[in-house]
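Good day; I would like, with your permission, to put a structural problem before you. A protein sequence and the structure tokens that stand for its backbone fold form the material at issue. The record follows directly beneath this note:
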Amino acid sequence: MPHTTRSTRGIALLLACLSALGPFSIDTYLPSFPDIAAQLGATPLEVQQTLSAYLLSFAAMTLWHGAIADRFGRRRVILGALALFGVASLGCMLATSIGQLWFWRAMQGITAGAGIVISRAIVRDLYDGAAAQRLMAQITMMFALAPAIAPVIGGWLQIAFGWRSIFAFLVLATAALWLACLKLLPETLPPEKRQSLRPTYLAGAYREVMSSPRFLFACSALALNFGGFFVYVLSAPAFLMQHLGLPETAFLWLFGPAMAGLMCGSWISGRLAGKLPPGKTIAVAYAIMATAALLNLGLNLSLPPGLPWSVAPLFVYTIGMSLAMPNLTLFALDPFPDKRGLAASCQTFFQSGFNGLSAALIAPLLWGSTLHLALGMAGLLTAGGLAALAHRRLRLLPG
């Protein structure tokens, strides 16, 4: 299927917006945590659990988005999920208790994952090899803008109108994205390639994917690498407002350097596609992340929390993280050419499930000090590197 550079960039932008919906709905309301607690009579931990409710339901439903898209097609499922996400965002806006907010955040999580799961499947529907890596890198580079601008927009809306305006903004943004998909999103899965939803078929397909060592190690590497950065996102209110003494409008100090690094790494990945073998690209990425983690530990041991040194290592870390991401993502999907949607679902389930665990357990254990966060980054990266090494060894085995 021939594609011009212009059409590639167009589909990359649309897929990036779909992929960014989930992270955007996480980061936009972070500056409003204190206001939500005050307005709904909730404790800080109860407000934090709105994030856990979102992430855990996101993880549970992503296991099914791909299988449903393999059966009914990519476009129809995307449009339905966006409509339901808009309804859930409206419910969050109108919530009058923390319990209601938990419920509607869970509903957001159930629907938000369709974008990122199906976008990955669409990439593999359209392209192979270096072309797929380049498109994945373009999507990641554009996607990186969302977490950078989301808390800034959220901070402005919080100051001007209060926390409910953030969810009103999500309703409007989702409506605009739905219209864009209605007009521009192609159907990339022809009817003859669609899969069954019979329970026996699905049970066998899920078992095949989730028992594959190559799949599990690639997904573990992705999740753990991302976890080294994501603990800072989950701890952003404490990290920025308590440890660094910044106001709710200053979240760009965290997300700006990190997302700039993500964009740089994605750009480098796209440039290296077809020029450097994927295994070597991943090795370079881990060297960059290890440098960042060691720098982060050294700065935290020698200096008090402050700007810019407390956030500078995140720029370096996310360069390496995003450099490794496209190839690790493709490595996880490549063993299952006939089940790309389902495999993408399993991959996102793995990632988002770990994110939910991080929100519920890991981040609260680490956000007490910047040194604990640095140690968490180093530990998660080490585990991710071991998973990537195990995957490499399996991939190089004969047969």
Q: What stands out?
A: DSSP finds 16 helices and no strands in the chain. The longest helix spans residues 44-72. The radius of gyration is 20 Å.
